[in-house]
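Please fill in the sequence for the structure shown.

STRUCTURE ENCODING:
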């Protein structure tokens, strides 16, 4: 968390959690569109089915370590970025899941640590 003297940390943009998490596929989709690469061409280059790539780019499938490395090889963008984005997406999605949040609160209530 970023802190600045005299500023409420909740008011600093980098500390704000977005209402909707950003799936790394959304960023990848914008990147390949910007580069003028078709999804079919990229899928062939990466050696994956077009339908699988399309599901990743449309946030219906996660970016796995293997896909991140394939994107890295095909696009020259560090795959670790996409893995971290996917982890952030997963964490935020879990936190926003009402039934899981209730379960989490129950665990915290009974945990040995405050």
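FILLED IN BY: designer on duty
SEQUENCE:
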């Amino acid at each position: 968390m970023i802190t600045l003297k005299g500023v409420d940390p909740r008011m600093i943009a980098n500390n704000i959690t977005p209402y909707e998490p950003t799936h790394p596929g959304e960023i990848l989709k914008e990147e390949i569109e910007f580069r003028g690469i078709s999804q079919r061409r990229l899928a062939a280059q990466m050696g994956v089915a077009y339908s699988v790539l399309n599901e990743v780019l449309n946030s219906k499938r996660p970016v796995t370590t293997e896909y991140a490395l394939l994107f890295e090889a095909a696009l020259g963008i560090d795959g670790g970025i996409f893995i971290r984005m996917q982890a952030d997406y997963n964490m935020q999605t879990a936190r926003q899941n009402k039934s899981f949040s209730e379960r989490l609160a129950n665990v915290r209530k009974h945990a040995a640590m405050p």
